[in-house]
Amino acid sequence: MSNADSASTKWDVGFRSTTIIVNGGTSGPGSSGAIVQTGIFADIVTAPDDGYLQDDKNSAANPYAIKKGSGNGWYSYDPASNVISPIAGRVLLFKTADGKYAKVEILSYYKDAPAAPTSSSVDRNYTFRYVYQPDGSKKLQ
Asked: Of 51, 55, 44, which Cα lies nearest the Cα of 22?
């Protein structure tokens, strides 16, 4: 995707370091939204009907659909080791601008998904698993 595409509706979700943005609200002209749900990835088999949030940088309490900060959204940060770790049981659900659904579980924030990342591990290299439902149904299996 070119930089010009970032101001278009050609995308639904973006990754900026540990911040995940959606193309909706103040992050883009689209109508995408997201929910952070607690549960087991395999057990979440249906996308919710509503509750999808869009980014709102004018909101001091909730500027992003997927909250930023350690323990708030999808990750925790250990300042002693300087390591970002995905929070077990956090699944990201997305509704795309064209009415499709996806679920995503982030497995690692580091290149090659090391079992025990360290402060020298190469970061900003997401490993995740996902299910995308291209037919517009809410079935996520």
From this structure: 55
